[in-house]
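Cross-check.
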Amino acid sequence: MKNYILILFLFCMGVVTSQTEEGGKYTVKNLEAINTKGSDFGTAYLGETKLVYARPKKGLTLVKDVWQQNGQRFLELYVADIDEGGNLSNPVALKGEVNTRYHEADVIFTKDFKTVYFTRNNYYNKQLARDSKEIGNLALFKATVNEKGQWVNIIPMPFNNVQYSVGHPALSEDEKTLYFISDMPGSMGQTDIYKVQINESGFGNPVSLGPKINSTSKEFSPFIDGDVLYFSSDRSGGKGGLDVYATRLVEFPPAPVSLNEPINSSADDFAFIINNSTRKGYLSSKREGGKGDDDLYSFIEEEAVEFKCKQIVSGEVRDKNTTEVIERATVVLKDADNNELESVVVDEEGSFTFSIFCETEYTLEGKKEGYTSQNKTFTTSNEADKKMKLLILLGTGSISELVDENGVAIGKGEAVDEVKPEGLPEVLPEEIVKVRPSTYVVNVDPIYFQLNSSYLSKDARRELDKVVQLMNKYPEMIIESGSHTDSRGVFGYNVWLSGRRANSTVSYIIENGISSSRITGKGYGENQLINDCADGVECTEAQHAKNRRTEFVIIKM
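Predicted model, tokenized:
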């Protein structure tokens, strides 16, 4: 039924897909006792002991019941018993109004087996909808399963359309998302996998899974096991016909992995489903040695498919001096041999994101005309799905730091040359200390602030009086009052708040007799934390307080 399936669900072309990951280990068995000379395919669990699948109608063949593309009767849904060995027996056509005179196939039940989604020709209210070419496309339907096991209240999905096909339903683990395939406008290939949110009022708008999963070929028969998405595709690089692939439903899904033989063969292999507990499942295939057209096969998973460990690095590009976002800056991801892997131009928020492999060395370069390019090299850990944040501060001699999601530094940018402020003596007086490369500050206790406050406490004023005394001692000293916040709060708000704190300290010093030409203020927000209390890290109030400070950096003596 290879051509039958392809034509039935409107399906050509292809792209190369990475298959460097392990595709699992399986034992496969043909279910000869239940397969027929016709097309038997598309299984779905109905509890632990029953299976629903599609096959041509039984009985006397009538012209109006025959699908002309393959000469077989239209498909309808059957239910069979499952024994302990995974064999199927006693197939019976589903009763009630579910089976019509046209095709029905591809089913998924909710976990309580009270709701079912299924595919049929766009046939509703005893009428077959046809497109502008007089083709009866496929559509998705939803039904309620009553206490007698009958499918009632059958309704079409709101995103069905007479002009294109929608079918092959699958449900997410939490049953809040419905997946399906369609050739709707905007699809990359002949059919793509889409998803739609299920909510109390109905359904959201369909969203394509995008080029990480879809291809310019056809995607087919999705099935979800936990966070793993199985599907079939005839993209190039496979063993032939439709092959079964697997990927993960995460923010940055790994490249689809082609499952190993004997799951995949040189013929069509599709409609892969698996029991999450027993690791046993079913497959449809038209491989050699079958009984008829497409046949049903059972399998046992001996080794699960493996995906390469991946992480995410994201961040922003900002101006070192103003902390403002630098739009249209370029960030380049390179491998250990300095080969460019990926390049992005940051958006209006200055943000970028890359998906990267674990335990791998990378270099990130941030650049834009008029700024000093920034390069940094780092090696990822072995934690899967770990997220790291990166703040790139472009500017002459800027330093950027790479941190993981807990705020722990894992890499540095280019170091700057040591440059002492003009007039600073080689031997520092005790009132001046070096705190960072090229950074010298007045040796007083930091000025701390209460959360969300720029008010100067008595302790803060006492320390500011020491700054005034030192500036009177060195009348040509010029300093910058650099104010900082902790990591809590929105980035832009923290920059604003630190600016207010800097202005408070500058105003106090000027009010106490120091010329405004000798002191400036600047807010750095959360850019220069002095401990590990970054976003997502649990810290005590005392630890956060250390970052809410003002330092007096010497610009010139």
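Residues 1-20, 404-408, 412-417 have pLDDT under 50 and may be disordered. Residues 297 and 523 are 67 Å apart (CA to CA). Passed to J.P. for a second look.
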